[in-house]
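Support reply, case 0932

Customer input (verbatim):
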Amino acid sequence: MRFCRYQLSDQSTGIGLVVEDRIVPLQDIDPALPTDMDSLMAMQSAQLERLAAGCNLPGLSGSVKLLAPLAAPEKVVCVGLNYRDHAIETGAEIPSEPVVFNKFPSALIGPGDTIELPAESKRVDYEAELVVVIGKTARHVSEDEAMEYVFGYCCGNDVSARDWQKGTPGGQWLLGKTFDTFAPLGPYLVHKSVVPDPGKLRVQLRLNGETMQDSTTEQLIFSIPQVIAHITQVVTLRPGDVIYTGTPPGVGDARTPPVYLSAGDVCEVEIEGLGILRNECK
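Our regenerated output:
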């Protein structure tokens, strides 16, 4: 099951089931179904199964804009240096435990939205990432039970201002990662039931059609259960919170010569089974 948030030409918004190339509003399937993503995530698996009735319904017609699948997550948690080859290409030591930082929710944008390149940075970089969406409150979760707390997955782009992240006193990871528009997310929220093994997904990023990153989540140093268990030792994760799980090698800052984002560039993050997240820079 793939879900989305959408906006119509009259500015009204809704939640839809994505069936092939069409969007079926949940309210067309059953008026009693949720009208927001938080309520949808609270449904039990057995309840979600009835959404299959929407597969034969017509989709929306006219102008439809996809929004970020989650409107306002309480937390946007990120894991750095979580692919061995990426750590090596940056010259960093292989971490012995997850490197955790965050972005503010104000950085979130959806598919088709614009990545705004700030005048304050000359070294803005891309990072394709698998994003985990938490489905129920998680605190002190073990690795064995961690996947029970996952609702689904999205494509994400951990856009990063490297001159702020690395070139300022002390290294400003937070500020370098959380400029407005620096957390593209989407295009869909894909339920975990249709992702048999999130540890075996191909992750790609194309910049203006050229493949810059191409790896699989098999290369993660710390698995999704390990990451969730580690984070919930410290902080309570709530439904709708998202975890950007790390990026594979091929980032622009590690290339010779370096490649940074410019106005007019188009980033496409594609993750196997999750769709393509496309954003233009300006």
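We compared this against your earlier run and they match. Two observations from our side: The chain has two domains: 2-67, 76-281. Residues 2-67 form one domain. Please reopen the case if you see a mismatch on your end.
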